[in-house]
Specification:
The complex is a heterodimer of chains A (212) and B (224). By secondary structure, chain A is an alpha/beta fold. Chain A has 7 helices and 10 strands. The radius of gyration of chain B is 18 Å and the shape is globular. The chains are: A alpha/beta (212), B mainly alpha (224).
Chain lengths: 212, 224
């Protein structure tokens, strides 16, 4: 991959009449990990949504993994994007193992790979615990296990360090290292400037929807 | 097995697993449906002929009301992170619609089967000459309600007025389903053919299937 993993030009997003992102430019080169920092409500999560192809920009142009944003082309590349949002994407009534196995089966990955990923994030002993009765940190680990299992070319972590202990930070390190090796890209949003600076190649700062 | 069917079956399996754990259908809807069947004889004079006449209307009414509760159940509501996850996994939105419909269909068939012996026990209706003839009508009726519930649930996802709006959307569209199923039973009881009513059920189910397939993709985009 020599083309940028992500290339946004002049991206704007409005929710109704409220501008949330204003003329944002962002490029993530193959093998690059970019951090996003900024105060609450500055548009960091919206930017992540745009890069994940889940929020359609109101203005500007962009390509993610070669697919033009705002077109049906993005469906082609979504399977290669891994997103861990504010709220972990788990089914509370399913066990931790069932959550991961469901994802594996839908994505066409073996159940063994799911079990391996569960062990890799240190949750093998808690495999049969319902996700709804697991801590927020454990649920976040399921998000990370999904990334280890599916190996996405574009890793997106919102509030990357929230609710995670130091052991889990090592898992993020592993995910980022593997992504770099695959010449993929990553975008990390975090309020923890110290941890963010350590894990990324550069930091993009956003205030009031615009890069500064 | 094709990727489409593998995904649809996984969604159905997940829904049934979640339903089994949460127990919303078995623990809440089913007992109250059974209670509704039981209450009507207590509220009437107890005349055997009146109860026999009421058997079919009560059955259809209870399966419609409580069936829609099942089809629109809270456990079938996905959160935004869950929906985003499925989109990024490359889940075919039509496979999702089919999977959700399948799981609701299984639950609705269960509701119908539980209510039949209760209605027979409490209302003692005239025996139907060939009850097996009712099976296709019951299956098509449940399938229609399942698709209707899935569609209404998806159309109203994320709306604050969901609990009020979804039944209002679904209720008028359930009329041809109730009509097809109830008239099938009447025709069988009279020894008449049920082709017309079966065709009505098939046509309604087909229309709902087309609506589900056509709207699956746009609804997926708006819900994430």
């Amino acid at each position: 991959m020599t083309d940028p993993i992500v290339q946004l030009r002049d991206i704007g997003v409005r929710f109704g009449t409220v501008p949330v992102l204003v003329a944002v430019d962002l490029t993530i080169a193959p093998g690059e990990v970019v951090g996003v920092a900024g105060p609450n409500g500055s548009g960091k999560t919206t930017l992540l949504g745009v890069v994940a192809t889940l929020i359609r920009p109101s203005s500007g142009t962009g390509r993610v993994l070669g697919a033009a944003l705002g077109t049906d082309d993005v469906r082609r590349v979504r399977r290669r994007i891994g997103l861990s949002g504010h709220e972990p994407a788990v089914y509370p009534d399913l066990t931790l193992a069932e959550n991961l196995r469901f994802v594996a089966r839908v994505a066409g990955v073996t159940v063994e790979a799911a079990d391996r990923a569960l062990a890799d994030v240190g949750l093998a002993a808690a495999a049969d615990r319902p996700a709804g009765r697991s801590s927020h940190g454990m649920q976040r680990r399921i998000d990370l296990a999904r990334m280890l299992m599916l190996e996405p070319d574009l890793v997106l972590l919102d509030e990357a360090h929230a609710g995670l202990d130091q052991d889990a930070e090592v898992i993020i390190d592993v995910i980022l290292e593997r992504t770099r090796r695959r010449r993929g890209g990553a975008l990390l949003v975090s309020h923890d400037a110290e941890r963010l600076t350590r894990q990324v190649d550069r930091v993009l700062r956003i205030e009031a929807g615009a890069t500064v | 097995m094709s990727r489409f069917w593998r995904q649809a079956l996984q969604v159905a399996k997940r829904d049934l697993l979640v339903e089994g754990r949460a127990g919303e259908g078995v623990g809440i809807v089913l007992p109250f449906g059974a209670l509704a069947v039981f209450v009507v004889p207590l509220a009437t004079s107890g005349s055997a002929s009146l109860l026999a006449d009421l058997a079919a209307p009560v059955y259809w009414l209870v399966t419609l009301l409580f069936g829609m509760q099942l089809a629109l159940r809270q456990t079938a509501t996905e959160t935004v992170p869950q929906r985003r996850l499925l989109v990024l996994l490359g889940l075919d939105p039509v496979a999702r619609f089919v999977g959700r419909t399948l799981s609701a269909w299984v639950l609705l068939i269960g509701l119908q089967l539980v209510l039949i012996p209760l209605v027979v026990l409490f209302y003692e209706p005239e025996p139907v000459p060939t009850p097996a003839l009712m099976l296709p009508a019951l299956a098509l009726y449940a399938l229609g309600l399942a698709m209707l519930g899935t569609l209404a649930g998806d159309l109203t996802v994320g709306l604050r007025t969901r609990t009020a709006l979804a039944p209002m959307l679904a209720a008028p569209l359930a009329v041809p389903l109730v009509m097809g199923a109830s008239q099938s039973l009447i025709s069988i009881s009279r020894g008449e053919g049920i082709l017309t009513w079966t065709l009505l059920l098939v046509a309604t189910d087909l229309a709902l299937a087309v609506a589900g397939v056509v709207t699956a993709r746009p609804l997926e985009e708006t819900a994430t």
